[in-house]
Design brief:
This protein is mostly helical and about 550 residues long. Among the domains are: about 180 residues; about 70 residues, Transcription Factor, Ets-1 (DNA polymerase, domain 1, Orthogonal Bundle). The protein is built from 21 helices and no strands. The N and C termini lie far apart (about 135 Å). InterPro entries: LIPB1/2_CC, LIPB1/2_SAM_1, LIPB1/2_SAM_2nd, Liprin, SAM, SAM/pointed_sf.
């Protein structure tokens, strides 16, 4: 009974039967919730599978889109390269057309002058013939009148002799013999008079000498023995055809130019352009010394295309007007560049390093590389020959294609990158217009730049940048002409003209230390490229023990 009482006693105010009923209700509620959640889980699973399939489909589309974008970038890069090449070819053809038009203009001018001379010659000959005919008619009339007068006189004498003396038969017969000589006027007619073999009024003909029409020049013949026309033809071929007219009036032979003073070129030939005078002086010096310079084989049309290769096409008009050729590049001075309106210090360094590359390659016109080759890890000796366009191709290869067009007109080429110690990745980032806040992009450029120039060059560039008194390269730095002090003027007459020349890229090794802004030697990795730089350490070793 006690046990039964306990089962029926309420627990927490609830009987076991009520509790059991409540639990069963909770159980059914939980079963219902579980079924609902199971349905929801199944529905979510279906949605997840759909989303996964959709994600795979979008990922596939994204991959295909990326491939298409990559192909589009490659095609755009190829088209841009073709566009740059076509622009270079068009500029070259334009300059060639201008040069041909100038030659054609001079040729047409010469043709007009020849036609004028021919017309003058024809007019003079016509005038001479007309004068000859007039003189002939007058002579014929005078001769007829004279003969008629002589006939009358003879007749009168005959009558006088016959009337006065009958014994003068001998005299009368002489007079008759004189009459039989054909001097009677009635026996002569004007149309029977003919001129003799010589013409009294014949003057000099307006014809050219046989040698004047020939501009063929035998290079084995010394320049001093060239004729006037040969010298004038050479001037036209040399790009100085605008001075031919005055030259023809002044020059007798090539010796006239060889023995002339510099001021004579301006006075007698009208050469006011200082670079034209320098061009002529360098050529005459080459004729005098008979020195064979490879730079003399490069004309001024090639130099304008060379400006495209080193990234300075904005100066092509000035260089073309100055007729700057390869030999003038070899002897180009700071003042020459300033006269050509090249005032940027960075552009001076660009031209200087480019001329040094020409020196190293013995002025080979095809030494610069414009297209990417098969090299994967180019050495400094290969990078030094890169053109501006090749550097832009390298930027595209290191994923900096969007900044590559900023190098147009900057003067950046392989020679400047390798030879100039002040040119660093920061300089390149400045020229590419990469913002300073893009540190990751600049760090990527620095890594690629170091891999390009090599560890040795990077180390020396860093050491030079950390040295005291270092002035970083900027686009705003200008080059100004050197001003001579009063004390220098007393020594000007004692010094030779060559001593005053401040060459952009000196030919001798002693001038390397005196170059404007290039007071250091390139790093050891490129000294093998230049015989001049190779001899420099040996020279210092030889000078050291003696001192």
């Amino acid at each position: 009974q006690s046990c039964c009482v306990n089962q029926q006693s309420p627990v927490n105010g609830e009987t076991n039967q009520e509790r059991l009923t409540r639990l069963e209700g909770d159980k059914e509620s939980l079963v219902l919730q579980v079924s609902v959640l199971t349905d929801q889980v199944e529905a979510q699973g279906v949605k997840i599978s759909d989303l996964e399939s959709s994600l795979e489909e979008h990922q596939h589309k994204l991959n295909s889109t990326e491939e298409m974008l990559q192909q589009e970038l490659l095609s755009r890069t190829s088209l841009e390269s073709q566009k740059l090449n076509l622009m270079g070819e068009v500029s070259y053809l334009k300059l060639k057309l201008v040069d041909m038009e100038e030659k054609q203009f001079h040729g047409v001018e010469r043709q007009h002058k020849a036609e004028e001379l021919q017309r003058l010659k024809t007019g003079m000959e016509t005038l001479l013939v007309a004068n000859d005919e007039k003189v002939s008619r007058r002579l014929s009339k005078v001769t007829i009148n004279l003969f008629f007068s002589l006939g009358l006189v003879v007749r009168f004498l005959n009558i006088m002799y016959s009337m006065s003396m009958k014994s003068n038969t001998v005299l009368s017969s002489r007079i008759r013999r004189t009459q039989s000589g054909g001097l009677q006027g009635e026996d002569l007619e004007p149309n029977q008079f003919r001129r003799g073999g010589l013409r009294a009024t014949a003057g000099p003909r307006l014809t050219r000498t046989p040698e004047s029409g020939s501009t063929v020049r035998d290079m084995n013949t010394p320049f001093s023995q060239w004729t006037r026309e040969q010298v004038c033809g050479w001037l036209e071929d040399y790009g100085l055809g605008q001075y031919v007219n005055l030259t023809r009036q002044w020059v007798d032979s090539g010796q006239t130019l060889l023995s002339a003073r510099p001021q004579d070129f301006e006075k007698e030939m009208g050469i006011n352009h200082p670079l034209h005078r320098k061009k002529l002086q360098l050529a005459l010096r080459g004729f005098s010394t008979k020195a064979l310079e490879k730079s003399s084989e490069l004309d001024h049309i090639w130099v304008t295309r060379w400006l495209d290769d080193i990234g300075l096409p904005q100066y092509k008009d000035q260089f073309h007007e100055g007729r700057v050729d390869g030999r003038m590049l070899q002897y180009l001075t700071v003042n020459d560049l300033l006269f050509l309106k090249v005032t940027s210090q960075l552009h001076h360094l660009s031209i200087k390093c480019a001329i040094h590359v020409l020196h190293v390659n013995k002025f080979n016109p095809h030494c610069l590389r414009r297209r990417p080759g098969e090299e994967r890890n180019p050495s400094p000796s290969e990078v030094i020959q890169w053109s501006n366009h090749r550097v832009m191709e390298w930027l595209r290869a290191v994923d900096l294609a969007e900044y590559a067009p900023n190098l147009r007109g900057s003067g950046v080429h392989g020679g400047l990158i390798i030879l100039e110690l002040r040119f660093s990745s920061e300089t390149l980032a400045m020229l590419l217009n990469i913002p300073p806040q893009k540190t990751l992009l600049r760090r990527h450029l620095a890594t690629a730049f170091t891999a390009l120039v090599g560890t040795q060059a990077s180390l020396e560039k860093r050491e030079y940048a950390n040295a005291t008194g270092h002035a970083p390269l900027t686009t705003a730095a200008k080059v100004r002409p050197k001003k001579l002090g009063f004390t220098h003027f007393s020594h000007l007459r004692k010094r030779r003209p060559d001593d005053l020349a401040d060459y952009i890229c000196p030919i001798d090794s002693g001038g390397l230390s005196a170059m404007n802004g290039f007071s250091h030697l390139p790093y050891a990795g490129v000294r093998g490229l230049s015989p001049i730089l190779d001899r420099e350490p040996e020279r210092r070793e030889q000078v050291g023990p003696k001192s």
